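Write out a record, fold above all:
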Amino acid sequence: MSGDIREHVTRLDAVLGFMATTLPPASPRPTAPLTGGPFTGEPLLVKDLDLKLAHAPLWRGNHVLREHGAVSSHDDPLGRRLRELGFDIVGRTKSAEFGLAVTTEPLAYGPVRNPWDHERSAGGSSGGSACAVAARAVRLAHGTDLGGSLRIPAAHCGVFAWKPGLVRPATTPTFAAWNQHGFLASRVDDLRRMLPVLGRDKPSDADRSGTDGPTRRVRVGVLASAVSSAIDLGSGSVEAVERMADKLSDQGHHVLAAHPRVLEEFDQFAMKTTPMLAGWLAQEVADASKDLGRPLTEADMEPGTAQMLAMAALATPEAVRDTVQWLHRIVTDLTAWWDRFDVLLSPTVPIQAPRLGWLNDPDTAMHRTYGMMQYTAMFNASGHPAVSVPCVGAGDLPYGVQLVGAHGSEADLLDLAEQLSPDGAPTPPVP
């Protein structure tokens, strides 16, 4: 079976280009045996970013790390957990370089092609994982989400994505806390099985209705307008949200046009947090340099990565202090909205998957990138859990709608996602 799944993955990868590298069966591990866990033998693809597996490649979408053949020296806690649970980790999926882009077109190993239209982006930075799941290479794939990196590719490729939230609201905003491991799948059941893997299987603190189970009525606020000046909301995205809102209403939920007004400060959020993002990137580059055995230089990176890294100089102690104070108010206002609502329904991204290259133009890339993140990034800062739910729209390309819940409501969000799409993700026309 192990050889069969690797042959299946390789065949689809030859068409879509979602793999960074495959890993051999029973890849080297220093600790427990590969048998006995509840997921024993189940194939899993993991993103080439932020997940260390001892003796396995970790290239972070960077061509120099790839050419060097960089490997991790140890398992990080999640890597060890996945191995102990028995997953057959088939390989690593492509990531945007250091996870900075909302498309997956790294110079290190070429673009990931959207399985619905091979000339379109699969989203990013977890585009390789989203594409693999959409193409049915595997049922489940790992990704990371710093500002939408799970949810955006899920929307473009037409699969489910789960970004876990923090257990409680963030008090000191840091990018380390914002960056969350999560999973993409073609069925909600597979995401639900991963709740205990990431320690999110406890009963929801958000269930204030006094009833149990997925049929309880929830209070849903609906956002169907742009909150950024960078990219307008497409009419198809509006229709997708309205269609899903109608479904929820038909199922007896309380649905009302409403959203946290603080989301409309997104452009200011993007501007203020960019230097902090650059500071976080500097730490990631320093960590990658250890695997390389020398410092990574600007010449070793894509121009956009080097440009972002240079902005770390703007993250002075005074600027960071001011930004943290401003973010504290943003997070407080966002969190207060859930005193009156259980769920926010919005687009995941403002438009369908753009053509390859559209997000790579140096003159427009940052502006367009932030525009694509307008519904996702603030919820990394606030630590709210979120799920992207697929639906097919105009031109047979998928849309994604996002469900955001109160802290601790992951299980409830997955129940609601299954109500919206009980038959699972649509199947694209891949070979």
Notes: Confidence is low (pLDDT under 50) at residues 27-34, 203-214. The chain has one domain: 2-420. The domain at 2-420 is CATH 3.90.1300.10 (Amidase signature (AS) enzymes).
